[in-house]
Specification:
This is Replication-associated protein G2P N-terminal domain-containing protein. It comes from Candidatus Edwardsbacteria bacterium GWF2_54_11. With 342 residues, this protein is α+β, with helices and mostly antiparallel strands. It has 15 helices and 17 strands.
């Protein structure tokens, strides 16, 4: 369920290592904010000494320690650490997450002499994900993603990624098989595998949305966080209604009107079917009243053309065209039921 997580240390760490890869930075707090004083301690010849900067480089587990506005942060992928740095593909269970947090604390201590309280650290960013092994490729699902009910602005579009975000949260859906950087890792992942990540970008948002502050809180409320993930994607996919809703049908009024004038009568309707495919078209026209209303607004004859078209709509609802494998509602149901977070 967890991928990238960023932790903010609440108490200054202690360094007991001569490893040159370890440096330290200030993190003294006064009423929750850094004071700017160098209060981190490194032991030299048995004596404590204050130091001023910290970083850990070339760590095989991709654990990053850095400073920002006087705080010390630790960033890593829970899923990647679970596989000893090999891959972040497989979701981690509660037991696995607990083991990872304990391992990171021990690893930083034993390998780098970095003594810090991971369980008591503030969760400053968290990425929650699920993998879905689907029957179809990412491109087949794109019409569905265009209908997601998220109050985010659309991000940069990619061929195999759907990104929506604001300053506090993000939704990212992408082709996990394509995303893997090496051919050897791709071979271990089913070709049609989608990943859906929900990213929470700061501690305030995490506390408001997930009701967690520290790593201990996260482990205590693991089931609630997992439920939150499914609730969010359920809401985004509009599982409470047929897709995509009558409001989207209005987008086709102008198109149908122009096609009716150019092609004449019912040919326009079937030209639309050929252009869009029944998956999207019948997802738009999710009720007979929606079809009738759009056809009337587009100027079709109420007595002859609309009744005939309505009969064809009923026929196409039950018999899909050879080029169409599933309806948009079928895609939605399959995606939701296929997502695994553990």
């Amino acid at each position: 369920m967890l991928d990238t997580i960023t932790l903010r240390l609440q108490t200054p760490p202690i360094i007991r290592s001569k490893n040159n890869r370890v440096k330290l930075a200030p993190a003294a707090l006064k009423q929750g904010w850094p004071t700017g004083r160098n209060v981190l301690i490194r032991y030299t010849r048995g004596r404590p000494r204050r130091v001023s900067s910290v970083s850990i480089e070339n760590d095989r587990y991709h654990i990053e320690v850095y400073t920002n506005f006087g705080f010390i942060y630790i960033r890593f992928s829970v899923a990647r650490v679970m596989t000893l740095g090999a891959s972040n593909f497989h979701p981690v269970s509660w037991d696995g997450a607990e083991a990872v947090f304990d391992f990171v604390q021990e690893h930083l201590h034993l390998e780098h002499g970095f003594i810090a309280d991971i369980r008591g650290a503030v969760v400053a960013r968290i990425d929650i994900f699920g993998n879905a092994e689907t029957r179809f490729s990412f491109s087949v699902y794109r019409p569905l993603f265009d209908l997601l009910r998220f109050r985010f602005r659309k991000g940069v579009g990619f061929e195999t990624t759907d990104l929506r975000y604001n300053d506090e949260r993000a939704s990212v859906i992408y082709d996990k098989h394509i995303q893997q950087q090496t051919q050897s890792l791709r071979a271990l992942i089913r070709r049609n595998t989608l990943r859906w990540e929900l990213r929470y970008m700061n501690a305030r948002t995490i506390q408001q949305r997930l009701d967690i502050i520290t790593v201990d809180n996260l482990l205590e409320k693991w089931a609630a966080v997992r439920k939150h993930y499914y609730d969010q994607i359920s809401w985004a996919l509009r599982l409470d209604r047929r897709l995509p809703g009558d409001s989207y049908a209005e987008d086709y009024v102008e198109m149908l009107s122009q096609m009716r004038q150019e092609l004449g009568g019912t040919k326009a309707f079937f030209q639309l079917i050929e252009a869009l495919g029944t998956r999207e078209l019948l997802g738009v026209f999710n009720s007979s009243e929606a079809v009738r209303e759009v056809l009337q607004q587009a100027g079709f004859d109420k007595r002859k053309q609309i009744p005939w078209i309505m009969d064809k709509v009923a026929e196409f609802r039950s018999v899909r065209l050879p080029t169409e494998a599933v309806s948009i509602n079928d895609l939605r149901e399959e995606l939701y039921t296929s997502i695994r977070t553990e």
